[in-house]
Write a structure and sequence with these properties.
- The protein has 130 residues and is mainly alpha-helical.
- The chain is built from 3 helices and 3 strands; from the N terminus they run ββααβα.
């Protein structure tokens, strides 16, 4: 579950939001699809197809990241409505450990997709040269 800490100084005030920030089946499927696109294009495609697959990976990951951003905004809005927003006591969103790991995977996939999009033809030639 997502946690909200009322202030950095008062870590004892931790509340759970009714909406979970657990990783959904949709997010898992999108990440699997990203890596399948890369593997299939590397094994069965040509250098142009492999390079273009990098752009598809970026598009898929952006959809996944957008879902997480919307969820985070909903959680913060829920608590702003519930306890009110005070400038002297800002609300902070604390991600679950599972979400932090998945977000790291998203970041890695964005970097990998960008590198493949930019240099996929060279990577393909290096791999298939041996």
């Amino acid at each position: 579950m997502a946690e909200i800490i009322k202030s950095k100084e008062d870590n004892s005030k931790v509340e759970k939001h009714p909406v979970s920030d657990k990783i959904t089946l949709f997010e898992y499927l999108i990440m699997i699809l990203c890596y399948l696109v890369l593997i299939i294009s590397l094994l069965y495609g040509n250098e142009d197809l492999f390079q273009r697959s990098g752009s598809l990976v970026i598009i898929f990951v952006v959809f996944t990241q957008n879902k997480q951003t919307i969820l985070q905004q909903k959680i913060i809005q829920y608590y702003n409505d519930k306890i009110g927003y005070h400038q002297d006591c800002p609300i902070e969103y604390k991600k679950s450990y599972q979400r932090k790991i998945f977000d790291s995977l998203i970041l890695f996939t964005i970097v990998l997709g960008t590198v493949i999009w930019g240099y996929g033809d060279l990577i393909y030639k290096c791999i298939h040269h041996f």
